[in-house]
Task: inverse folding
């Protein structure tokens, strides 16, 4: 397992170096040192283990996230450019089912890029969010995001 | 077509100035904090456009570094808010 | 053809930046302005970077431009939450529409 983690992380950092150096070959001596150091640091700081995030849910989450941040941007642009602004802002409270820690923090932070929602406060499992238009199905959107994050952390029902 | 990217870069700069003036006017201190967001998104966009328009590829590195610093600052900000809050911190 | 698509993406990006600024100027309080800036400007940046990446000289250079986007997304998400949280702690009440 450790060999696989080592190989995949080293490959990832090498790919990053290739991108950063724009495919030039003359920097690979320095790049090799950098890749080795980064791999060592990553194995040291985040040892491969059960607490990781799996690849398939991560891709699904990224797809969901990018699609919804597109939707969010289009929606807020329409609201801003409407001749007569028509906002119905409100504060909503939701009870989160996510485990404490990284999952909840990810939820709180990504809400700001999803359509119509913005995380404001998190007290234990009680999430407070600001919404632009209370007439839109914002709670359902927040629940969809929560479900994706739960799958990402392997805590899904 | 570097005229297009130069034009868009100038347009973004005008936007940035207008947004900065609005944010600086307030009325609350929280409004003024919006400038932190503006430098992340608009500043990086202007740098990337100028890199193309003026043929200075190094400006892409500047944009990348600015984005990286903005991300690190943002995450540090959020983590501090997290630990300063009521949440128990399970891992570190 | 690629130049045309690239120019179109740059213009769409400029449009979203513009919408974000309009939202910042027109929206009534700090929370609603955060919505406008965080969402619209990030989409504008995504379009601009995609447009520039289409004209990049190599695949690696294009990927490098696109690498900027997720970093700025992470920054905006964290910073917009932090500002909203701070605004609430400072006692800034959200604007509400007057009852009809």
Result:
């Amino acid at each position: 397992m450790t060999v696989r983690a080592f190989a995949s992380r080293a490959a990832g950092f090498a790919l990053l170096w290739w991108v950063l150096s724009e495919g030039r070959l003359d920097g690979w001596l320095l790049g090799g040192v950098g890749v080795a150091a980064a791999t060592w640091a990553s194995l040291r700081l985040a040892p491969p283990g059960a607490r990781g995030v799996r690849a398939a849910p991560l891709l699904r989450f990224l797809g969901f996230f990018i699609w919804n941040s597109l939707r969010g941007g289009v929606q807020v642009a329409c609201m801003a450019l409407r001749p007569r602004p028509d906002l119905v802002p409100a504060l909503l409270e939701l009870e989160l089912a996510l485990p404490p820690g990284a999952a909840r923090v990810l939820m709180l932070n990504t809400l700001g890029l999803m359509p119509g929602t913005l995380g404001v406060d998190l007290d234990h499992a009680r999430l407070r969010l600001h919404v632009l238009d209370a007439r839109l199905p914002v709670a359902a959107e927040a629940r969809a995001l929560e479900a994706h994050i739960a799958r990402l952390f392997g805590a899904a029902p | 077509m570097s005229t297009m990217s130069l034009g868009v870069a100038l347009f973004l700069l005008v936007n940035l100035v207008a947004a900065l003036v609005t944010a600086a006017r307030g009325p609350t201190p929280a409004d003024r904090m919006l400038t932190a967001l503006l430098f992340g998104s608009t500043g990086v966009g202007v740098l990337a456009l100028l890199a193309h328009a003026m043929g200075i590829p190094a400006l892409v590195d500047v944009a990348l570094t600015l984005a990286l610093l903005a991300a690190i600052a943002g995450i540090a900000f959020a983590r501090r808010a997290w630990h300063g809050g009521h949440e128990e911190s399970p891992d570190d | 053809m690629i130049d045309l698509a690239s120019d179109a993406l740059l213009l769409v990006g400029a449009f979203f930046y513009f919408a974000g600024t309009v939202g910042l100027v027109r929206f009534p309080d700090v929370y609603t302005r955060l919505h406008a800036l965080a969402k619209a400007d990030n989409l504008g940046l995504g379009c601009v970077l995609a447009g520039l990446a289409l004209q990049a000289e190599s695949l690696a250079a294009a990927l490098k431009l696109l690498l900027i986007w997720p970093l700025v997304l992470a920054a905006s998400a964290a910073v917009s939450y932090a500002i909203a949280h701070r605004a609430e702690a400072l006692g800034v009440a959200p604007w509400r529409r007057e009852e009809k």
In short: The first helix of chain A runs from residue 2 to 20. The beta strands of chain A are 90-95, 117-123, 126-131. The CA atoms of residues 33 and 39 of chain A lie 10 Å apart.
